[in-house]
Amino acid sequence: MPAQDVIVIGGGIIGCVVARELARRGASVRLFEARTIGAGATQASAGILAPFIEGHDRGLLFDLGLRSLHMYDAFVRDVCDESGLTVEYRRCGTLEVATDAATAARLRATAGETLRWLDPVAARGQEGALASAIEGALLAPQHGYVAVPMLMDALAWAALRHGVQIEAAHRVTSIRVDSDHASIGTDDGTSWTAGTVVIAAGSWAGQLDVDDGAASAVRPVRGQLLRLQWRGAPLHHIVWGPDCYVVPWQDSTLLVGATVEDVGFDERTTAAGVRDLLDAVCELLPEAWRATFLEARVGLRPATPTGLPFIGASERSPRLVYATGHYRNGVLLAPLTAQMIGNLIADGREDPALAQLRPRA
Question: What's the pLDDT tens digit per position in 129-177?
Fold first, then answer.
């Protein structure tokens, strides 16, 4: 289907990368966001790029993550060039820490050409702040992170410079698809039409009135994230423990995440969530007791029954396309998702992986 006019619903990381990609390919794109750009799950993302951790089972999610990670250098470079902004992006590696013998044995078994097992002495040689009572760590040198707030600013500007029209503070409530067009309705009673509508609304996909059961299968999972001012020697890697992860920014702040809470559309930060993360980070990095607490953030991650994102055309119509349900991997999978959706809408080419990512009720 040639790219002509497209409506993208959702202004998080996925909505923004899809809108930018389609506009780069010549489409006329209008992006709708009910709040502000990046205000949903995206603003509570630590921006970790770690497929070897997120895809431990080495299934499709791992394959997708690795493909997208390989795209990241060029993706960040291009977004920075297009926007004129700088984005903090580092391939600093991850240390996945084992705190018991069973975990150590499991991680050691995965070591090889791309992953290196470190005994406790070698692990603390990499990060001296690690607790003494560890069994070792798995080093993944190719992993990294991107500072999501900076990336979102750059993406928004890049999208605008490619001609994307951003309709903020418009909540889309309904989608209707006909043979020759698709239309949306908003909460203020206005309607808009386009050749294709892309659902990139994250957890809120399930709240859309749409003649397609797949949207209702997306559900929110709350994740809380802390930001601390680190006072110790600089950390060199992302540190991943059994109950939290730690992302060290270059300004000496740490992002500590993340809780996993099935509480529906409850976007509150809670005392229990903050306490659990503080306990976990201080057990992993005892010097964290000296850190300054700066803030807590919360986001609702979009989960699907399959554990995989919904990417591709609706079974009902090729004019309704999904790019949602990325759960904890929206930032990691953003470049690949944009490419897949761009190829599908602009060129009519379907990535082979879409057969397993097809939206299903």
Answer: 999 999 999 999 999 999 999 999 999 999 999 999 999 888 999 999 9
Place of tokens 């930018």: 20
Tokens describing residue 41 = 């799950």
C-alpha 178/C-alpha 318 separation (Å) is 10
> In terms of Cα–Cα distance, which of 101, 32, 58 is closest to 242?
101
How many CB atoms neighbour CB 338 within 10 A? 25
Gap between the Cα atoms of 357 and 340, Å rounded: 11
The residue behind tokens 């601390």 is: 228
Amino acid at 100: D
Place of tokens 């399959």: 306
Cis amide bond preceding 258, omega within 30: yes
Q: Which residues of the chain have pLDDT under 50?
A: 1-3
pLDDT at residue 2 in the model? 38
Cβ proximity of 142 and 332 under 8 Å: no
| CA distances, 61 to each of 2, 77, 337 (Å) | 29, 25, 12
**Does residue 275 contact residue 191 with C-beta atoms inside 8 Å?**
no
Q: Is 54 helix (H, G, I), strand (E, B) or coil?
A: helix
- Give the residue among 228, 299, 307 at the shortest CA–CA distance from 45: 299
Token output for 201: 């609304």
Q: What is the CA radius of gyration of the chain?
A: 21
pLDDT reported for residue 4: 66
Closest CA to 339 of 17, 78, 4: 17
9 and 114 Cβ atoms separated by less than 8 Å: no
Query: 125: burial class by Cβ within 10 Å (0-12, 13-18, 19+)?
Result: exposed
Which residue has tokens 């029954």?
A: 305
Give the start-end residues of each E strand in 180-218.
182-186, 191-194, 196-199, 209-210
